[in-house]
């Protein structure tokens, strides 16, 4: 299965014949991969299976079951684990890592229960951003129940613990993946149903100057849609899409595609040199060697 270069620069990111390795399989639907920089292991969510799993480079084991149908995960600068929980409509923090004590950081907005926090990033200033679509209120992916909020938003948890809506209420249909640019002056947020990526300027915790970064991330002939999304060290945006991963240059040009044989939900770099790309794709966890690593996030230097 060959990857596809749509611009010569893509060759510097990954070899077109780079093989995908199956790190684990037999899962229900994998999501939310995150690499521990000190202990060198990957956590990922088996969301409908209500299980959080750990890959140590050799084998996959169960880290937590049940897991409140956890989805997206991130570490903060202190290596506390942040988890978007579908079953509880909460953002939870686990002190010191996955085995630590659980505390809820966000569960309600304006007195109403959040929809189902989905994906999450921790900024260098200590604040946390997350998306809140409705997927966790659907059968299988969460707990089926009525929606209390009448919109799907993007939020910021400030360092003082307060929760802020940072986008217009009607802007997104199903906000999903999000990531910062290397200098954290830009925040990218995709919308699964609108099949696009928006980008915002980040100014003092607020998002301004919204524009569409990429659109039309769809293909009737191939399964896949915008979901998980990450930014590499060079500012390229890697997003899930039909047939695998679609890669965009910082100027929004589509430069290549990574072919994956299953529906892809998310991705994260790992390994001692951050040159292994882990891909959560439906029933399997894949790994592929790449030539570029992620942009530096606060937790990577913890």
Give an overview of the whole structure.
The chain is an all-beta fold and 302 residues long. The protein has one domain: TolB, C-terminal domain (Neuraminidase, 6 Propeller), CATH 2.120.10. Helices cover 0% and strands 45% of the residues. It has a five-stranded antiparallel beta sheet, with no helix packed on it. Strand 15 and strand 16 form a beta hairpin. The N and C termini lie far apart (37 Å). The mean pLDDT is 97.
CATH architecture: 6 Propeller
Oligomeric state, counting identical vs distinct chains:
single chain
Find the structural class using helix and strand composition: mainly beta
What's the structural domain tally? Answer: 1
The CATH class: Mainly Beta
Task: Please tell me what the overall shape is.
Answer: globular
| Rg for CA atoms | 17 Å
What strand order characterises the main sheet? 1-24-23-22-21
How much helical structure, as a percent, in the residues?
Answer: under 10%
CATH superfamily: TolB, C-terminal domain
CATH topology: Neuraminidase
- Which residue ranges are poorly predicted, with pLDDT under 50 across at least 5 consecutive positions? none
- Distance N to C terminus: 37 Å
Mean pLDDT: 97
Order of helices and strands: EEEEEEEEEEEEEEEEEEEEEEEEEEE
Number of helices: 0
Q: Classify the beta-strand content into a percent band.
A: over 45%
Number of E-state strands: 27
How does the major sheet shape up? 5 strands, antiparallel
Tag the structure with descriptive keywords:
single chain, 302 residues, Neuraminidase, five-stranded antiparallel beta sheet, 27 strands
């Amino acid at each position: 299965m060959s990857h596809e270069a749509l611009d010569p620069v893509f060759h510097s990111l990954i070899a077109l014949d780079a093989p995908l390795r199956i790190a684990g399989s037999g899962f229900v639907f994998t999501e939310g991969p995150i690499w521990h920089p000190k202990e060198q292991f990957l956590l990922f969510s088996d969301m409908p299976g209500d299980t959080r799993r750990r890959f140590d480079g050799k084998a996959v084991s169960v880290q937590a079951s049940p897991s409140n149908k956890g989805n997206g995960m991130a570490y903060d600068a202190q290596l506390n684990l942040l988890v978007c929980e579908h079953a509880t409509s909460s953002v939870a923090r686990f002190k010191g890592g996955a085995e630590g004590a659980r505390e809820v950081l966000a569960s309600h907005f304006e007195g109403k229960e959040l929809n189902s926090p989905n994906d999450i990033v921790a900024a260098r200033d200590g604040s946390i951003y997350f998306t809140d679509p409705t997927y966790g209120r659907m059968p299988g992916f969460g707990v089926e129940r009525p929606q209390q909020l009448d919109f799907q938003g993007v939020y910021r948890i400030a360092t003082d613990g307060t929760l802020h809506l940072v986008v217009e209420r009607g802007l997104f249909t199903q906000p999903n993946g999000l990531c910062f640019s290397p200098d954290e002056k830009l925040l990218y947020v995709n919308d699964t149903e609108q099949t696009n990526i928006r980008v915002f300027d980040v100014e003092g915790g607020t998002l301004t100057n919204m524009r569409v970064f990429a659109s039309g991330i769809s293909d009737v002939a191939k399964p896949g849609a915008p979901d998980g999304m990450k930014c590499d060290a060079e500012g390229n945006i890697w997003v899930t899409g039909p047939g695998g991963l679609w890669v965009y240059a910082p100027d929004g040009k589509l430069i290549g595609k990574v072919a994956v044989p299953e529906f892809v939900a998310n991705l994260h770099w790992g390994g001692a040199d951050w040159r292994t790309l882990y891909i959560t794709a439906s029933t399997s966890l894949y790994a592929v060697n790449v030539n570029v690593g992620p942009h530096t996030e606060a937790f990577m230097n913890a």
